[in-house]
Amino acid sequence: MSFIVLLKAEYMLVYSEVMRRKSALMAIIIYPYLFAGLTLFVGFSAGSPQSFVERVGIDPIVFMVTASYMIMAITTGVDDILWRPLSDSWIGTLVYIIASPVNKLKLFMAMPIPRLTLLLMMGFTSILPIYVAFYGLYGVSLTIVVVALSAIGALVMTPLGIAISGLMHVASESWRILSIVRPLLFVFLGAYYPRMFMPLVLRLISYSIPSSYTVELVQRLLIGIASIDIVVLLGLSIALAAIYVPLGRKSINYWEKKKVREGVKAH
Amino acid sequence: MTKAIEVRDIIKRYRVKKRLGILKSITEFIDALKGVSFSVDYGEVVGLLGPNGAGKTTTIKILSTLLLPDDGEAYVAGYNVVEEQNEVRKRIGIMLSVEKGFYGKLTGRENLEYFAALYGLDGKRSRERIDYLLKLLELDKLGGDYKLFEEFSLGMKARLSLARALLSDAPILLLDEPTLGLDPPSARKIRELVKDLAHRENKAILYTTHNMFEAELVCDKILLINKGRIVADGTPQELKSRIPKLKVITLDIRGKGSIDKVLKDLEEKYEFKEENGIYEVRIHVHRPEEVFNETVRKFINNGFEILSARIEEPTLEDVFIYFSEGSS
Question: Which of B106, B117, B148 lies nearest to residue A5, judging by beta carbons?
Fold first, then answer.
């Protein structure tokens, strides 16, 4: 079964949902600004921009806008994987998906790509104006690099997302677990709270998340880093994602078997 | 030739929690299927007929690879439903719910395109198949091409659901109460189509319903299922002929007396329904001529007025009551 066929179907599904549900489209456009604005507001209220620059090495506005964008891209990709089994179950489509001969791993791999594409495009309305304001023309090329790295960051997260999704949805009321998993991902990605400041235990968990390397890479890029780091961090990110692929496959098979053992509800 | 569907001694037991308080509960087991066996050939519509909770949907779900049996064996197109799930899935089309199971913000056509992709259909092949199905089910005339699923009427939803079952042109169809809640024209359309699919396209169709009239119209063979057991099987005529001596005294009565008191005294099996103060009582008897006068008198003596009284041949519903009460 072709991955492209599934991807096209997912594009149609997601884009119809987003474009025909105006509130969803508005949320996608507004969310990065809202998120960055809120964090900056809290940041400026609690501390001074100078101390932020001294500690982190980047202007807080650039840092927060970038962090919000990357978080949005990465978690949106993972969200699709984490939420779809639930929403399909509520809508009543899950039963037909499970009863079809589709390769479930391929389907889950295709799920996050359409919304991710949309979000990546949003980079040109959210981070581009800020980068141009701060860095001039260099901001344009920087935007392209950050968008590309966000795409990689979201894609390398897919296998881990599938592994978590498969394990999570065998539990009843898995949406409760999901509301815990999501903020944890926020923290461990190190986008708002850079990994270098994390306690050792948190840092070790963060190292096990493939996207955290691309987040770190972007942060270093904004500060100014040696080129060797790019290769190492990207390599680690992709290698870790590859390790999670078999785990994702097993997890999704386990979920499907468990569902069938209990009986998939047709509603 | 391999049977399209072959089920041997399937047993399914559900675990249910019985709540005895906020924190206290006990686990009980309910036998949904108690050793069900049957087979379906290509080119025939087999009806699985029974009341709610009889085990119809459980059977369909096991055959659709959506539920594992606890014991017994089931084969679809020669493939084991437990061990060869993917092979089974390639060969079945299912319809489990009329109302739900589609994406609300997609049109009928787009929904079919999405599900076609799950079966590996794409491009021209998918488009042609969907065109054909929209036309076959007359969804093209009803706006299935451009209306969002959330704007569909129940009849349109049912048609779309059947179209999805037919998307991959599977040789075996498993249809769970496909006409439930539909208006007469939509129900008739689906019934006609189901018969055509079996007889013209040689598909094997397992069709669950609790509508006796429908079963008699659509099915070549009927399996009566009650409390997890097949209590009788055969063609509608065969089933009726297996209770040759059974007749039905049907009385339409009106009155203020206690109908329960009269019915309690009857020795025969009966059922009754009430509409606008008029009761229709159906009493199953072997020698109606011997008990007719006495039965009518009982109702009159208890303050009922007899509006009409007649002796009828048994319907499939009577057959069902006859066999299912025997089984319990």
Answer: B117
Distance of CA A220 to the CA centre of its chain: 19
d(CA A216, CA A236): 12
Question: Model-level pTM?
Answer: 0.84
The whole-angstrom separation of Cα B23 and Cα A74 is 41
Q: Return the pLDDT at A185.
A: 84
Asked if B300 and B274 count as a contact pair (C-beta separation under 8 A), the reply is no
**A263/B122 touch (CB, cutoff 8 Å), yes or no:** no
Please give the pLDDT value at position B100. 85
Return d(Cα A132, Cα A147) in angstroms, integer.
14
**Subunit contact B66:A92, Cβ cutoff 8 A:** no
* Minimal-distance CA residue of chain A relative to B106: A16
Q: Return the residue in A84, A96, A258, A260 with the most chain B beta carbons within 10 A, the one to mutate for interface testing.
A: A96
Average pLDDT of chain B? Answer: 89
Tell me if B178 sits within 8 A of B98, measured CB to CB: yes
Q: Per-residue pLDDT tens for A103-123?
A: 999 999 999 999 999 888 888
Burial zone of B294 (CB within 10 Å; 0-12 exposed, 13-18 middle, 19+ buried): exposed
CB < 8 Å to A8, chain B = 117, 122
Query: What 3-state DSSP class applies to A34?
Result: helix
**Domain annotation for chain B: domains and CATH numbers:** 243-327 (3.30.70)
* Cross-chain Cβ contact B118/A100 below 8 Å: yes
Which residues in B lie closer than 8 A to residue A260 (C-beta atoms)?
Answer: 65-68, 85
